[in-house]
Design brief:
Blueprint (H helix, E strand, L loop, with lengths): L5 H17 L5 H8 L3 H8 L6 H11 L4 H7 L9 H10 L4 H13 L14
Helix pairs in contact: 1-3, 2-3, 6-7
């Protein structure tokens, strides 16, 4: 596991807690079961305790996200792309179908300002 600053783990924990609540998971046991980890591990992550790559992947999957925003936060960055160019670059690098990419490009053409909550609640 790569070493990240403690403050970045705390920031990630707060963000994960926000994402969990927005996804409708309020019961610890339900959330832990969805993630496939113990309550201690998932709540530890939310308290800012370091977690391994497998746990981060499991949490991301449970939220319907990929791991990029998690590692952006750990690196001290914003979790979501900040510019249209960043957003389009991520879209092209994604594993989405060409049909889905075309729909997203069309939506971006309709609303050229990328949303600040990009990817929240997206299904895998």
């Amino acid at each position: 596991m790569r070493k990240y600053p403690e403050e970045n783990w705390k920031r990630l924990g707060e963000w994960v807690g926000d994402q969990r609540r927005q996804a409708g998971y309020t019961a610890t046991t339900t959330w832990a079961a969805k993630v496939g980890r113990s309550s201690r591990v998932v709540l530890g992550l939310e308290r800012g305790e370091p977690a391994g790559d497998k746990t981060i992947r499991a949490v991301a999957t449970a939220l319907g996200l990929d791991t990029r925003p998690f590692y952006r936060i750990l690196a001290g960055d914003n979790p979501w792309p900040e510019t249209r160019a960043d957003l389009l670059a991520e879209l092209e690098a994604s594993n989405l179908s060409e049909e889905t990419k075309a729909l997203i490009r069309q939506a971006l053409d309709t609303n050229p300002s990328p949303p600040t909550n990009l990817g929240k609640g997206a299904s895998a």
